[in-house]
């Protein structure tokens, strides 16, 4: 009797388990009813972006441990903190890299204007820029029979989140910027509208109207959303801002100084292509980060075999920047250690102002009158160049004299979109050696552009994506 009861019980359990059938999310048939995830077991490996180096997670003593030679209130008290791993640009963003951003904005605006001027006729996609009609929006109806259900849905909706699926630019069509290559009068009228009017030109030289080069992007205000315990469209912020650097900073920053050649040549001349971009505000630096994130995301989406959505690029926090600048060295005065500003051959280890009024001292010692090319000085222990001198760098952090005391010890950060004072780190070509210390703090207003402030970007890494050699200072 006991054996019969056990047999019936096991049969009943079998019936209960089988009710889920093959559609159960708990596991595949044959897993004996165990909860087994269906994701592939292959581990995720972070892909290092081009031009970036890996910064391992670790803890260190943040703040100015050395003598405060400037005697300012910006001095940070010593505090032990922990920082997660991330990728960081090995050098500051250069003029050539930022010009890619500016040219993208210029081209996208030009293509939109040309598509609007082309009228309702759709481009065939087979033209070679021989007339303005080649720049019309791509005709999606030609491939109506090949659309996926989702693409048909978008066609029926007309638009999604401000994006009109029927107005897709044809980026395969070549743009002609030389007047001798304009294909027709309508094309000339559109392209010429992007230049300054003849009455505003100097010596008749054609120049793009920089005020028209505006980049539109969006970001989510996580701080407000978390504070209000909700998510949604109310916290998606949309911005559109001019992205061309303020080249006049070379004149405005220095009264009674002849810096006109730098104003006229620094950003666009190829002689300065490997020099760090300057004249960029905090908001423009963030827009560049958004563009770089979009560039990588669009590429991944274009692949036949879709890659995982890449993590976004952003500006580093103040503490992340300081941790990276120290290069894994304990209590490092400078990125190369210290306390000296020269190596054993008598050459300077960064681009800065050695003495009052003397920006060069000796050509053989390696400093520059203004900024210098990237990667000309020794890299630190993490493989980062110019973390001291050349140009100071924007961080995402709000500047506050007590921020090192009031923030959390795990990934400390003070971020506020409305806060106008932002932390700037590293010292620049115009600063004395004391300003180059890894623990030295400075700030600038977010809407200010300077001839001595640039930036570099970082990308977060999931902690489980790598096996870091953890550092503890």
From TrEMBL:
Gene3D superfamilies: paralog of FGE (formylglycine-generating enzyme). GO terms for molecular function: formylglycine-generating oxidase activity. It comes from Frigoriflavimonas asaccharolytica. It comes from the Bacteria. PROSITE patterns: PROKAR_LIPOPROTEIN (PS51257). Residues 51-458 form the Sulfatase-modifying factor enzyme-like domain. Residues 1-21 form the signal peptide. This is Gliding motility-associated lipoprotein GldK. Keywords: Lipoprotein, Signal.
């Amino acid at each position: 009797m006991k054996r019969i009861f056990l047999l019936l019980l096991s049969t009943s359990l079998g019936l209960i388990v089988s009710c889920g059938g093959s559609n159960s999310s708990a596991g595949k048939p044959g897993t004996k009813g165990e909860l087994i995830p269906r994701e592939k077991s292959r581990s995720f490996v972070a892909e290092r972006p081009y031009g970036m180096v890996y910064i391992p997670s670790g803890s260190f003593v943040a703040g100015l441990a050395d003598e405060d030679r400037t005697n300012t209130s910006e001095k940070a008290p010593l505090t032990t903190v922990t920082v997660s791993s991330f990728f960081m640009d090995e050098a500051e963003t250069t003029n050539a890299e930022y010009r890619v951003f500016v040219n993208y904005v210029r081209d996208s605006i030009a293509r939109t204007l040309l598509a609007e001027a082309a009228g309702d006729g759709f481009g065939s996609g087979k033209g070679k820029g021989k007339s303005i009609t080649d720049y019309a929006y791509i005709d999606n109806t030609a491939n109506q029979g090949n659309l996926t259900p989702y693409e048909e849905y978008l066609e029926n909706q007309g638009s999604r989140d401000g994006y009109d699926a029927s107005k897709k630019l044809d980026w395969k069509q070549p743009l002609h910027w030389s007047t001798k290559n304009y294909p027709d009068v309508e094309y000339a009228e559109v392209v010429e509208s992007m230049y300054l009017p003849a009455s505003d030109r100097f010596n008749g030289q054609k120049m793009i109207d920089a005020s028209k080069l505006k980049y539109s992007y969006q970001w989510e205000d996580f701080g407000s959303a978390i504070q209000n315990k909700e998510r949604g469209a109310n916290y998606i912020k949309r911005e559109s801002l001019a992205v061309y650097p303020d080249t006049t900073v070379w004149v405005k920053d220095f009264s009674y100084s002849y810096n006109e050649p730098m104003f006229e040549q620094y950003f666009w001349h190829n002689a300065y292509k490997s020099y760090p971009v300057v004249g960029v505000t905090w908001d423009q630096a963030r827009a560049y980060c958004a563009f770089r994130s979009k560039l990588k995301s669009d590429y991944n989406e274009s692949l036949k075999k879709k890659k995982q959505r890449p993590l976004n690029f952003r500006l580093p926090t103040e503490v992340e920047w300081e941790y990276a600048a120290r290069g894994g060295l304990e209590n490092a005065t400078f990125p190369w250690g210290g306390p000296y500003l020269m190596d054993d051959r008598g050459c300077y280890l960064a681009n800065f102002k050695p003495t009052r009024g003397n920006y060069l001292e000796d050509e053989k010692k390696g400093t520059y009158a203004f900024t210098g090319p990237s990667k000309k000085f020794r890299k630190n222990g993490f493989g980062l160049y110019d973390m001291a001198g050349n140009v100071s760098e924007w961080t995402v952090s709000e500047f506050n004299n007590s921020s090192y005391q009031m923030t959390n010890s795990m990934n400390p950060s003070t971020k506020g979109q409305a806060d106008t004072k932002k932390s700037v780190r590293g010292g620049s070509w115009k600063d004395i050696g004391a300003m180059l210390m890894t623990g030295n703090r400075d700030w600038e207003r977010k809407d200010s552009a300077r001839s001595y402030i640039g930036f570099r970007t970082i990308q977060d890494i999931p902690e489980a994506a790598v096996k870091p050699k953890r550092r503890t200072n």
